[in-house]
Amino acid sequence: MIETEDLSKQFGDYWAVDGVTLRVRPGQILALLGQNGAGKTTTVRMLTAILRPTRGWARIAGYDTVADPEKVRASVGVLTEQHGLYTRMTASEYLDFFGQIYGLDESARKRRAAELLEYFGLTSVANRRSGEYSKGMRQKLALARALMHEPPVLLLDEPTSAMDPESARLVRDEIARLRSSQRTIIICTHNLIEAEWLADEVAIIYRGRILASGGLDELKNRFLGPLEYEAHLAQPWQLDGFQLPDGVQIVSHNETSLRFRVERPKEINPVLLHALLARQAPLLTFNEVPRSLEQVYLSVMASVQR
Amino acid sequence: MVKSLFPVWLVFWREVRDQLRDWRVLFPLFVLSVLFPFLIKQGAVTVLDFTAKYGGDLIGERVIPFFVLVAGFLPATVSLVIALESFVGEKERGTIEPLLSSPIADWQFYVGKLLAGTIIPLLAGYLAIGLYLLLIKLSDVDIKETGILVQVFALTAVQTLLMVTAAIAISTQSTSVRAANLLASFIIIPVAILIQGETVIMFWGKNAGVLWWAVFGIAILSALVIRLGLAHFQREYLLGREIDILNLRWIGRTFWQSFSNGQKYISDWYAYAVWPMIKKLRVSLAIVTVLGVLGVGVSFAWFQANLPRLLQDVPVEKRAEIVNERLESITDSDVVELELSAPLIFGQNLRAVTFMMLLGVFTFGVLGMIVFLFNVGLVGTVLALMGVLGSSPAVVFAAGVLPHGIFELPALFLSAAIVFHLGVVLVTPDSKRTMGELLIEGFADWCKVTVGLVVPLLLIAAVVEAYVTPILLNLYIAGG
After folding, report:
1. ipTM for the predicted complex
2. Model confidence pLDDT, tens digit, residues A37-79
3. B102 in reach of chain A (CB within 8 A)
4. CB–CB of A84 and B235 under 8 A?
5. Regarding beta strands A153-157 and A184-188, do their DSSP bridges make them parallel or antiparallel, or are they unpaired?
6. Disulfide engineering: B121 pairs with which of B79, B230, B294, B308, CB 3.0-4.6 Å?
7. Which domains does chain A have, with CATH numbers?
8. B293-323, pLDDT tens digit by residue?
9. Is B22 part of the contact surface with chain A (CB cutoff 8 Å)?
10. Is the separation of the CB atoms in A298 and A237 below 8 Å?
11. Domain ranges, ordered by start, for chain B
């Protein structure tokens, strides 16, 4: 569980994070989105008890970040913005080192390192110094380090950056698997497709403040309006005289397609479809118009930058 | 306890292993520890031959331990870069954040790095010393001064420790490796000066035992620097500060806020800025007062006991002349020759308190206290000298010290107390303020006490000393 209340950090006169309140439950992934310098890294550093909040508080896995910093750190696996590898260490040495720091015994360290190296396809290079690795391999090793002690809370900064599509998919699958094993996860990312694919909740941060947060559907409804549906017709059809049911609004149309905005789709869509068919509309397809997290993000950012 | 030391070992061992895999560390160390001793051995043998030729045997004997000092100092200085970049270098490479996010406690992290930073320079220094001594032995040079060799071994260890502890402290407080390297001159230059002093003592010959005091003093200073580093090590500052811009406006604002305490009028400033500061100084003032009284008493007792023995061969009529000469040399001035004017006395006293503060800041009050004890010790010395010359120390004190001392001694004690307080503040953990803030606020506190009380007291004391004390002394002499 990750809980924050009015979490704020001031550097000199500048508030890097200002009043961030979040709740992330076990088995949930929160995507923290924002421009560079928006306050994502500072928030993560406060959640790992590296930075002390100027105001507010944070609790990680039940431990307060100020009162129990060491217990907080023991409960968290962090993937930092920079991979942070010791380039003169081999992958095996590196994982073993962090395994010891997190208090794993030798057999647990060996088992866990072997599992992770195998999963991320690094077994064949396990005894090569990480300085010789590609960017993607380094990122995978850094992620393996974050997972080494099987922490209940994961804070992942750009988990798939610099990875090829195959590796990125591997990492996303692993994150999804971790969610299903009741881990609490925050990912900071600029990859909105990835965020949409993984996140249960999204928080958009701008200049240290949370501008919007909530579930994906909730945010889409709030910032993009009611859902839109598109009907494609097999042949040209005249709309004239067609009586729209209440709660439906036509957004655009031409001879072979119609786009509606529907406020309560569960109630209204069957009525709408019935009405169309009753007017013998040559209905070919009827789909929800896809709306992306990117549209939400851009809409939110546009609203503050106006 | 053993369990809590394990993370220290982990940090230490990773760091050492990393250094031993880096040819940029190994190569200069190899040159300085293995090749350089051949060069200095040749230098030592040449100097020995030269001094033997012209009968400078004593210098020749001391050349061997002198070069031991050099052999130990150079590898330690060069490998200081390891300690300097121990924290800030990791920060720049981005490797520190995973460690800072781990459950290692601050002190475990710090001590692990400290040991790793110390062990390589120390081993390199001892390797160079060992090889140099072996080469000397193989050259059939007779090493007569083995006692000094032991002292130099100990000196190398404590000097390396001092340099490394200071470098680690700098590394935790710097925002970039470049800044840390620039600040390293604050380590290398004082230690180089220290070594010059040790060299003088070594060649002086008869006071070689003084080097043990140097070992003791440097060990104390190292312990204080370690305490300072631990007290102010906060993982927050390693990642919380990114830019090393000198923010003069912020410095000025922080200083003024602390100095004025928000007061606009002088009376309010005395009531709400100076007086609370004096109250804060109560404990320091008590300690300094005890030290001062002891200083006067000990110096008086020592000179009273030893002066007759030191002067026993001097005819009574010449004693005053010798005492005057000694006084001039001790007080480092021609004031005895000059007419004592109030501005001159005030300038000298102000210089002494400023000097005390400057030395105190860089040594956590230690050297500042020594300057203070030297000054109060002078009072005891002068009184003892007067006693030997046949005057009553009590009357001389009453007529020659007390009139201006009523103002001057409190000023001196206040100055010493603020310097002592600064030293204590610097080595006390403070999670709310950075080292920079502590230094600025400490300087502001010193200015508050100095401008508010010390300077006015010294001004009055100077006027009294120039115009009242001589009259009283003359009355005493005329009466006597």
Report:
1. 0.84
2. 899 999 999 999 999 999 999 999 999 999 999 999 999 999 9
3. yes
4. no
5. parallel
6. B79
7. 2-220 (3.40.50.300), 225-293 (3.30.70)
8. 999 899 888 888 887 777 776 666 666 666 6
9. yes
10. no
11. 2-240, 248-479
